[in-house]
Design brief:
- The chain has 3 domains: 16-126, 2-enoyl-CoA Hydratase, Chain A, domain 1, CATH 3.90.226.10; 128-175, no CATH class; 209-256, Lyase 2-enoyl-coa Hydratase, Chain  A, domain 2 (Orthogonal Bundle).
- Helix content is 47%, strand content 8%.
- The chain is built from 11 helices and 4 strands; from the N terminus they run H-E-E-E-H-E-H-H-H-H-H-H-H-H-H.
- The protein has helices at residues 2-8, 62-76, 100-104, 108-125, 146-154, 156-165, 171-176, 192-204, 209-222, 227-241, 245-256, and strands at 21-23, 34-38, 46-51, 83-88.
- A 4-stranded mixed β-sheet has the order 1-2-3-4, with helices on both faces.
- Strand 2 (34-38) and strand 3 form a beta hairpin.
- One of its GO terms (molecular function) is 3-hydroxyisobutyryl-CoA hydrolase activity.
Length: 265
């Protein structure tokens, strides 16, 4: 079992850095719906994915999901990326959820495939920030992991209440329930949440990249298993971090009373 876990938790192989690029979801002229931008200067290591589909309030359609998955696959292999930010280019909205107008035109088989791909996207992002699971108000069932992730965050009883009622939550309510970490008052530009997220990214940026990555693996994988298996996963992640240059650098920096210079190796 430990050998299998070790194989599954190996870090991805190095890959050439992803260049700044944009993807058009319909191939037509005009503003692209997905843009990937690597920040420079003191923010080097932070990469942003911009969603810009104002006509559909950034709703997740087939092509948009495909391009997001493609961007995430490339960024996952780019060791220069330390923090990834999702942001909206549409003022007043982040993402309206699945594109129900598009889904209405799909066959039952196509819906099943789309939901499966959407679930894969949610797994890649691994985000539990939910402002409302309103699918039951549209005759649908949360199909992107909502029935599994929400009970883990809130407990079964409260998760059922939110799903069964389709209740929408304010930012303050979501924070009180533990669904989001931070709430901020909106500014005139409508990008207050982005600035808070970027400030948080700047806090993460100086930390040891491999240790952060392995910590994320240990948490994500450990949440899906019993405590004994979770401890085994943590031990495997810890063991992978021991031979890194960054661990030795962190210890040396502590001993010499100076800031560490992590390189991700």
């Amino acid at each position: 079992m430990l050998r299998a876990l070790t194989s599954a938790l190996r870090l991805p192989r190095p890959w050439r850095p992803l260049q700044t690029r944009s993807c058009s979801s319909d191939g037509a002229a005009g503003d692209p719906e997905i843009q990937v931008r690597a920040l420079a200067g003191p923010d080097q290591g932070i990469t942003e994915i911009l969603m810009n589909r104002p006509s559909a309030r950034n709703a997740l359609g087939n092509v948009l999901v495909s391009e997001l998955l493609e961007a995430l696959a490339r960024l996952r292999e780019d060791q220069q990326v330390r923090v990834l930010l999702f942001r909206s280019g549409v003022k007043g909205v982040f993402c309206a959820g699945a594109d129900l107008k598009e889904r209405e035109q799909m066959s039952e088989a196509e819906v099943g495939i789309f939901v499966q791909r959407l679930r894969g996207l949610m797994n890649e992002i691994a985000s539990s920030a939910v402002m409302g699971l309103i699918e039951t108000t549209r005759g649908l069932l949360p199909g992107a992991g909502g029935t599994q992730r929400l009970p883990r965050c809130l407990g079964v009883a409260l998760a059922k209440e939110l799903i069964f009622t389709g209740r929408r939550l304010s930012g303050a309510q979501a924070q009180a329930l533990g669904l989001v970490n931070h709430t901020v008052p909106q500014n005139e530009e409508g990008n207050a949440a982005y600035h808070r997220a970027r400030a948080l990214a700047q806090e993460i940026l100086p930390q040891a990249p491999i240790a952060v990555r392995l910590g994320k693996v240990a948490i994500d994988r450990g949440m899906d298993v019993d405590i004994a298996s979770g401890m085994a996963i943590e031990g495997i992640c810890y063991a992978q971090n021991i031979p890194t240059q960054d661990r030795l650098e962190g210890m040396a920096a502590f001993r010499e009373k100076r800031p560490p210079r992590f390189v991700g190796k």
